[in-house]
Design goal:
74% of the residues lie in helices and 0% in strands. It is an all-alpha fold.
Length: 276
Amino acid sequence: MATTTHDVAAKSGAKPSVNVYGNLKYAWMATAVYLIYVVSLRVYQQWAAWYAGLDSTDPIFDEYWMSLFYWEVTLEAAGCVLLWSYMWKTRDLNVFNISADEELKRYFTLIGWIFVYAMAVYWAASFFAEQDASWHQVVVRDTSFTPSHIVLFYGTMPVYIMIGVAGFIYARTRLPDFASKISIPYLFAVVGPFMILPNVGYNEWGHAFWLMEEYFTAPLHWGFVVLGWTVLMLAGLALQVAIRMAVLMKMSSDGKGGEVMPLRDESMEYCDMYGK
């Protein structure tokens, strides 16, 4: 896996290039698939929530909503196992000896992972979460498995967890900088939203024992808000990625894209590049 088309091009004397579109095409495909998924869930809610989602003791509720819940958790659990296993199985065992061009190419792929992850977190923690509060303000919950919860907690949150962890594994196993040390911003940006799902248990326990208003500033919901804020750590991750990519692009433009880019202090690399 250490030998790449970029390495071959460098040895042959041709100047390798990074195909940005080619590296991001899977991100565009994933974005399209995800948008189809969440829009389909929203259309299903609009169609079935009022018709079959008002009484959890009604057999039609099981037919329309609990069946959706079982399909969601089954497919998502299988997806996590398969995707994370694939990312680990296909890891680069010679990650510290890849060329600068190959590393740059992989950074564009990482940007794709980050973009899809951020979009998935937005849809779950913003659109569907706000909708969840609105639904429960209008329809008093009689179970933890409401039409709103089944889509939010079990239909969208596990999906962004699957994407976020997969992207983190990609960075740790394919990029020298992330393989040599753990990125604290990336770790927090993945673990924080991940912990929203376990916090659901505490939330439902609280609602079962206390009569709580359905607004996010209620103390019972503080965990959701604080953990959701951790996604802002992606800004720190963006700085890490941008600084390294700037150095790699400079190296590629100097005709040294086929060489291995040594790991050094990022601030020193940035200063050296601009002669500061």
